Amino acid sequence: MDLNIVILIAQIIVSILMVVVILMQQKGAGLGSAFGGGDAVYTTRRGPEKFIFNSTIILAVLFLGLSIVAFFLQ
């Protein structure tokens, strides 16, 4: 298999995972917090919330790296 195809498939998989992980980060505030109705208290992330947050960062960096590699292989 060509390396460009492998990178393309990896980008698709990482992007789908990143969308899923981002959607899992919902705080339950809805649209009320967009207009100033949300609670502005800072809390630390613990347990699964911290894992999901770190997974989002890792997937974003991985997607960026795959995109840069794909750019230079063309």
Produce the secondary structure layout.
Elements: H1 3-23, H2 48-73
Helix pairs in contact: 1-2
- Helical residue percent? 55-70%
Largest sheet: none
Number of helices: 2
| Strands, count | 0
N-end to C-end Cα span: 16 Å
Radius of gyration, rounded?
Answer: 17 Å
Mean pLDDT: 85
Which ranges are low-confidence, i.e. pLDDT below 50, for 5 or more consecutive residues?
A: none
Shape descriptor reads elongated
Strand content is under 5%
Count of discrete domains: 1
SSE order, one letter for each helix or strand: HH
Structural class: mainly alpha
Describe the fold and architecture:
With 74 residues, the chain is an all-alpha fold. The chain has one domain (1-23, 44-74). Helices cover 64% and strands 0% of the residues. It has helices spanning 3-23, 48-73. Helix 1 packs antiparallel against helix 2. The longest helix has 26 residues, at 48-73. It is elongated. The two termini are 16 Å apart. The mean pLDDT is 85.
A few lines on this structure:
With 74 residues, the chain is mainly α.
Main features:
mainly alpha; 2 helices
